[in-house]
Amino acid sequence: MDQLIDFFKNLFSANDWPARWVCGEWSTFHGWLYITSDIAIWLAYFVIPAIIIFFIQKRHNLPFLPVFWLFGAFIILCGSTHLIDAVMFYWPAYRLSGLLRLLTAAVSLATAFVLIRDLPKLIKSKPEDKLKTYQLEKQLEKYEAEIIELKQRLNSKN
């Protein structure tokens, strides 16, 4: 229990470890390759949930909404681990990195569980567009039948 208390008490402390630049034999190219790659991955991982949120706001009555929120949280947390890896070249926040990884693992498992649980329902559900198309086709068939009937009445009067 003391280790857990110590962990959270020093969550943002970086005094116990050196920055990554001074750990090992990093060349400038190799270090910046890691930093820029991790920042680019982090950026993509933050843009994707923004797009998902935009999509959710534009589409009302979206089925399985919790799945979208879990995916968003999963993607943001994955991106956060890449950001902290880039930052650790200057600020060795290994405790914070460990906590982010634990949260990422928990949300990843929750997302996988919900997908496994909801997959049969997702497979059975009809996409809203297909349902609308089906309804429009039925309406069109009804109108076509009415047109044929009207034409027959007109022909019988002549």
UniProtKB/TrEMBL annotation:
Membrane-spanning residues: 39-56, 68-92, 98-116
Name of the protein this chain belongs to: Ethylene receptor 1-like N-terminal domain-containing protein
UniProt KW keywords: ATP-binding, Membrane, Metal-binding, Nucleotide-binding, Transferase, Transmembrane, Transmembrane helix
Domain Ethylene receptor 1-like N-terminal: 34-124
Cross-referenced Pfam families: ETR1_N
Species per Swiss-Prot/TrEMBL record: Marivirga lumbricoides
Family matches, as InterPro entries: ETR1_N (IPR058544)
Key word Transmembrane present: yes
